[in-house]
């Protein structure tokens, strides 16, 4: 928007005045004291100069040194006192939603303001944006990427600061590629890349050897012990010695963690180190191991002097806060954490780190269409990061429950997310990013025809022309097989054409901000007037599973979960969610949403997020001309039945057909009776079982019947499982699958009179009434 020179001058002068007040008045003394105690403060001038003199700057400093809260402030304040405050608008990206809000609130407080004036935030579904000029915006990386879909997305932005780049999440890596291109076309834009890990050479190299500023931390030395050192230092304790011998004989790189050993070392530290002082931080791969170690520690006589807390990203914020509490005198804090405690959160009083060296990581293999969830060794970089957590208040100790040789064999860095996840969403976003050619084509045209012409031009000229070429410019590009698999899915969904041009459907799918598979279901749902259940299904796909399973009340939770699988939601994980959401909505409308959640083991925050996301989808669909509020089915049951079939339109070719399989019962030399029959499922190339968390359970299915299901994800753990399953009529596959080939198109196999056999894609066979089958074949043409 246009702003006159006079107004800019007025704003500049006003900001200068306010800045002076903040620098001197006693009203801000508390804020000043807090800020001046941070390591960042000592480097203030150096940072300000480096930002002013370089277009790109990499800034490193350990968690808590003040990068996120101070660096944007330094830059804004410097401009304020120089009388050019209104010319600054800083966008700071955060990988996590919660961080964006809490940091904005903190910085607003430091500036003596409420959020939404010179400091604000925008995250999906929630925003308190700051004023356009003279301000700092904290937003999630995804929000900035969305803004870049508009040709003027960067208008008015003077600085972009990308925070927590060391996490290497897809969005951040993607944004880095885009920014590198944007820097060429925006001569005044400045970029600051901020990382909590010290080794930032990957980032400086990526930006053409740009300068690096490191903020020295206030860290103390940390002594490191490896597995082979433990017997000597723990000689006092015979129990430890015997445990260690056992642990050393078991293979060290198997998947699981020796929880007994972890507990033993924790108890050793609690008992013999530091005279009861100094918190112990334990790194474990996930929820299950945290719970096992916790159970073991709960049984010790030492428990009275311990304060046990778990720290896991799935814990509600309130429970996470317990990890930061100071224990009463004589009580020792033991924090059992995932790698969330590695960089994202900092517990101030840690002196001892016990590192099992493992991490649980999800990896997607595009060539097998398979997700694996494996516990594996971390990297050397994260081992060092974990070690550093012990030296924040005094010299610390780190116990690594693995050998030096294992450490040497670890990879240097973690594999970035871009190389581990399905890439459809990313590829679609790449196509939707506005490029200078789009700016030119949208600038002209006035009458209706020109508008139409523009639409077509947009559809054909938008974005980056070749996805693979673009992705090859990423810091660590994904495998080309993964990229091509994603492109193929997008083409089959109709989001891009054979030349990778974004189609009109693709344009809508990109705006929907959900995986295009779910976007496509939404579009179908809107056109067929059964949007409601699909809104819930798609919204839920954006967040974590709302069903909570507390370890101590697992059975109860499972029973409650299954109770939603009645009526139209029978045999469908997606529709169970819809049913739970609908019942919650009714309860929530009369103010009892939270108690409903408690009784039904649902996460209230997730339910609210789903509700908000549904509204956003509705808005986007109606903006795309796809949604008329009156065009809805009145009965939720009918909607659910249609939705069941429509899942195929998005999830194809993730289809499975039931099949009895013989499974040996664990005995090696299987005799005649040593196996049992199980209901498994056949997929395109292989056999799978339904994951135990699914409501589609063997115990509810009749082994002599033939079932068909559609699934969201194929996952390898101990076996290959499918998750997110819905039983469906096979006809839906023929009608709604993508480019389905029905093998007996030419001459249908007629079986006993009135039946015919349809063979879809060469493996999905089913019997159908002959007349219906012939009709169906005709409809497909
Ligand atoms: P970094 O980005 O380098 O990890 P931050 O700028 O986020 O560091 O935080 C610097 C310091 O500011 C923290 O160590 C903490 O003491 C304080 N701080 C940050 N956010 C909050 C908050 N929401 N409430 C209280 N203190 C905070
Ligand atoms: Mg930070």
Automatic annotation (TrEMBL):
Residues 268-434 form the Helicase C-terminal domain. It catalyses: ATP + H2O = ADP + phosphate + H(+). It is an enzyme of class 3 (hydrolase). The keyword ATP-binding applies. GO terms for molecular function: ATP binding; hydrolase activity; RNA binding; RNA helicase activity. Residues 48-216 form the Helicase ATP-binding domain. Its EC number is 3.6.4.13. Keywords: ATP-binding, Helicase, Hydrolase, Nucleotide-binding, RNA-binding. Transmembrane segments: none annotated. Belongs to the DExH box helicase family. This is RNA helicase. It comes from Riccia fluitans. The chain holds residues 299 to 1079 of 1121 of the full protein.
């Amino acid at each position: 928007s246009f702003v006159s020179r006079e107004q800019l001058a007025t704003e500049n002068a006003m900001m200068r005045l306010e800045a002076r007040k903040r620098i001197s008045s006693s009203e801000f003394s508390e804020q000043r004291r807090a800020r001046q105690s941070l390591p960042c403060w000592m480097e203030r001038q150096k940072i300000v100069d480096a930002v002013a003199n370089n277009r790109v700057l990499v800034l490193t400093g350990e968690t808590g040194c003040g990068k996120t809260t101070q660096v944007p402030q330094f830059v804004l304040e410097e401009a304020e006192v120089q009388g050019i405050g209104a010319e600054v608008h800083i966008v700071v990206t955060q990988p996590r939603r919660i961080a964006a809000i809490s940091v904005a609130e903190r910085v607003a407080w430091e500036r003596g303001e409420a959020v939404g004036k010179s400091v604000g935030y925008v995250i999906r579904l929630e925003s308190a944006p700051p004023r356009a000029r003279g301000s700092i915006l904290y937003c999630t990386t995804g929000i900035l990427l969305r803004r870049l879909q508009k040709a003027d997305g960067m208008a008015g932005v003077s600085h972009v600061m990308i925070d927590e780049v060391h996490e290497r999440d897809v969005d951040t890596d993607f944004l880095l590629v885009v920014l590198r291109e944007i820097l060429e076309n925006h001569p005044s834009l400045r970029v600051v890349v901020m990382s909590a890990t010290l080794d930032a050479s990957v980032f400086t190299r990526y930006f053409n050897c740009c300068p690096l500023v490191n903020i020295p931390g206030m860290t103390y030395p940390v002594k490191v012990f490896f597995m082979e050192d433990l017997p000597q230092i723990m000689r006092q304790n015979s129990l430890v010695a015997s445990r260690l011998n056992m642990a050393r004989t078991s293979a060290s790189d198997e998947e699981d963690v020796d929880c007994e050993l972890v507990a033993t070392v924790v108890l050793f530290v609690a008992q013999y180190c530091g005279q009861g002082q100094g918190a112990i931080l334990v790194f474990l791969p996930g929820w299950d191991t945290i719970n096992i170690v916790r159970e073991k520690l709960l049984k010790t006589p030492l428990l009275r002097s311990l304060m046990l807390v778990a720290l896991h990203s799935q814990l509600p914020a309130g429970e996470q806060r317990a990890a930061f509490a100071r224990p009463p005198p004589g009580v020792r804090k033991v924090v059992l954490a995932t790698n969330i405690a590695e960089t994202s959160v900092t517990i101030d009083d840690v002196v001892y780190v016990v590192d099992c060296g493992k991490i649980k990581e999800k990896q997607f293999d595009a060539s097998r269409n398979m997700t694996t969830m494996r516990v594996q060794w971390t990297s050397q970089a994260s081992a060092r990061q974990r070690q550093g957590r012990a030296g924040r208040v005094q010299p610390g100790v780190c116990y690594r429950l693995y050998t030096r040789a294992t450490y040497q064999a670890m990879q240097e860095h973690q594999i970035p997310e871009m190389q581990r996840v399905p890439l459809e969403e990313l590829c679609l976003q790449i196509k939707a990013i506005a490029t200078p050619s789009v700016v030119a084509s949208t600038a002209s045209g006035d009458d209706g025809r020109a508008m139409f012409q523009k639409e077509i031009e947009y559809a054909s000229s938008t974005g980056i022309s070749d996805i693979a070429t673009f992705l090859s410019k990423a810091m660590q590009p994904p495998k080309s097989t993964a990229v091509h698999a994603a492109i193929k899915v997008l083409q089959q969904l109709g989001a891009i054409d054979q030349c990778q041009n974004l189609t009109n459907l693709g344009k809508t799918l990109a705006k929907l901000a959900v995986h295009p598979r779910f976007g496509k279901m939404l579009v179908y749902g809107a056109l067929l007037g059964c949007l409601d259940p699909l809104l819930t299904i798609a919204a839920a796909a954006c967040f974590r599973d709302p069903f909570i399973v507390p370890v101590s009340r697992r059975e109860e939770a499972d029973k409650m979960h299954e109770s939603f699988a009645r009526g139209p939601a029978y045999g469908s994980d997606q529709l169970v969610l819809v049913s739970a959401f609908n019942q919650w909505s009714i309860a929530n409308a009369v103010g009892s949403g939270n108690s409903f959640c408690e009784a039904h083991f649902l996460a209230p925050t997730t339910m609210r997020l789903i509700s908000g996301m549904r509204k956003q989808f509705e808005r986007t669909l109606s903006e795309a001309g796809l949604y008329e509020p009156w065009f809805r089915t009145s009965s939720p049951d009918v909607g659910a039945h249609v939705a069941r079939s429509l899942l195929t339109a998005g999830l194809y070719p993730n289809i499975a057909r039931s099949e009895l399989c013989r499974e040996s019962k664990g005995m090696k030399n299987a005799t005649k009776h040593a196996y049992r029959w199980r209901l498994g499922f056949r997929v395109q190339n292989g056999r799978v079982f339904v994951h135990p968390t699914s409501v589609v359970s063997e115990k509810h299915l009749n082994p002599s019947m033939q079932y068909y299901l559609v699934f969201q994800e194929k996952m390898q753990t101990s076996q290959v499982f499918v998750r997110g399953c819905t039983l469906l009529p096979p006809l839906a596959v023929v009608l709604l699958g993508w480019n389905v080939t029905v093998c007996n198109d030419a001459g249908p196999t007629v079986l006993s009179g009135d039946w015919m056999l349809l063979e879809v894609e060469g493996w999905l066979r089913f019997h159908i009434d002959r007349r219906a089958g012939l009709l169906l074949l005709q409809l497909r043409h």
